[in-house]
Specification:
- This protein has 203 residues and is an alpha/beta fold.
- The protein has a single domain (2-193), classed as Rossmann fold (3-Layer(aba) Sandwich).
- The chain has helices spanning 2-14, 22-34, 49-55, 70-82, 118-125, 155-172, and strands spanning 39-43, 62-67, 89-93, 106-111, 129-138, 177-182, 188-193.
- Strands 3-2-1-4-5-7-6 form a seven-stranded mixed sheet, sandwiched between helices.
- Strand 2, helix 4 and strand 3 (89-93) form a beta-alpha-beta unit.
- The chain is globular.
- It starts with a helix and ends in a 10-residue tail after the last strand.
Length: 203
Amino acid sequence: MNDVIKEMERYAEANNVPIIEPDSILFIKKYIKLNDVKKILEVGTAIGYSAILMATAKDDVEVTTIERDDKRYREAVKNVNEAGLDDRIEVVFNDALDVNLAGYSYDLIFIDAAKSQLKKYFEKFQNYLNPGGVIITDNIKFHGLVAEKDKIESKNVRQLVDKIEDYKEYLQNNDEFITKFYDVGDGLAVSFRKNDESIKGID
């Protein structure tokens, strides 16, 4: 397993594929253990790195992960198979906004996909969250650029940062969810329904 993880890290660096920060995955794995998470939905597989690490938190964790990029999807499937986790990780090739998950529900929903679509992802997938579950969004700091928007020269990057700021405001003003923001890794937002404040590990 360690060899597979290390090879994925090398591949990600060589091919400029963003993967989750070490502190962020440690936070999420701790949450999975403390709250006995069993069913996880991940929006944005990339090469399967975070899905594999989440699945290793506990032996009974099952992950459904969605990826729309063909090359990354195929790489993720290969990595999941090499990690021996194809019985617990299902990689779905589709645009997350087009996926029909009727009849499914999850203890943890991890959003790590297109920053321009964060609000749409949240609004869609909150409907598949089990009681006591959380939605965790990664890259809320966007490589530190959210805090330094004035220095951004690229119009496209500025627009993405604006989208992230709008998303944070949306979470803060959400009538149904409470969101806590953590300065962990590249920034995590942890959202849970207002009647679920007894969740462990997010104080």
